[in-house]
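Worked example 2:
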Amino acid sequence: MKVDQYITFYLDQWENDKHFLKKVKSKIIDICTDPLKIHESKCGVEVNGELYGIPFSEIIEVAPANGEQLIFNL
């Protein structure tokens, strides 16, 4: 994963005292890794003006950045 790529993940949402998970696609702003491997690495993203750190294990899909081509290994 690289900065400027897009990731899809589930985000906790509340509406009228009801809790639900919303599938969200957002651009990676920053990647935070722990060199000691104590904490899971995260992608920093922005959703509706709020910043979130999404752990790698919660990422559903990674899409290329705008203008970036897909690479297929044959």
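The two ends are 20 Å apart (CA to CA). The chain has a mean pLDDT of 89.
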